[in-house]
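hey can u check if this looks right to u? its 258 residues, i copy pasted from the old doc so theres a chance i mangled smth
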Amino acid sequence: MASIVLVTGATGRQGSTVARQLLDIGWTVRATARNMESPKAKELLNIGVELTPGDWDNEETLKKVIEGCTHVFLNVVPNLATFTSEVPHAKRILNTAKVTGVKHVVYSSSMAIKDLERGPYHDPNHPEGGFDTWTILRTGFFMCNMFHPKVNMMYPDLVSQGILKTTYTPGTRLPQVDVEDIAKFSVAAFLEPERFNQQFVLIASEKLTLAEITKQLGEVTGRSCMARDLEDKVDIEDIQRWGIPLTLFEEFLEREES
C-alpha cells in the first residue's frame, strides 16, 4: 500500500520540514492552505506537496484531503486572538482521520504536555483515538525562534538592540531542538510504527542558559548580544504590602490537583 501522509501546519517551519523529509523518502504528502497564492503555499507546491485550499474548520475539506491517507502528522496551534481553536481543530482532524481509515498518527506537542489523564482537557478516547499506532513528540525550545522571521515577533529587542529579554532566570537551561530533528523523529515513527507506538518522545539536543545562547549568537553573527531576565524586577516584599493574598506555587498545585 502506498504511504500517503497528511501534514498539518505544512506552511509553518515545522510542518514544511516534515513534508520535505517525507517527500525525500518517496512518500506522498498532502496538506491544506488558506491562501494558495502565498509564498509558503507555492514553495510546498514546487517541492511536490499535494495542496488543497481550505482550513481545519471545514469538515468537507478535511474529509477530502484525508480520504485515502495512511498517516497523519498533527501539529495544531492556537488562535492567538482567542486561544480557543487548538483543541477543536485537533479533535476534528483526528475524528476525520479515524473514520477515513488512517492507521498511524504522529502528534508534535511540547515538553510541558505530560500526565495527560490528570489534565482538565483529558478525553479517555484520546490520545489513542482508535488508531492502530500513535506517537507523541514532546519538543523543546525551537532554535529557529532566534532567527527571522520568528525572532521579530518573539524577541524584537534581540534584533534591534542585541538584548534577549525573557522572564527566565539566569540559571534556566532551555532544551534546544531543531525542526529538522523533529522531522527526523516524525519520519522514523512513520517508518517504524511498532517501535514508536504509544511512545512519548522528548526531543532536545542540549540544554543552554540564556547567557550561553546569546554568547553563541554573538559569535556567529558578529554582534554583541546579551540576555536580560526579570529576576530582579519583582520585589516580593513590596507586592505583599498591598495586603492582597497571593498564591504560592505549592498552593496552586494542590488546588489544581483537587
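The CA atoms of residues 65 and 225 lie 45 Å apart.
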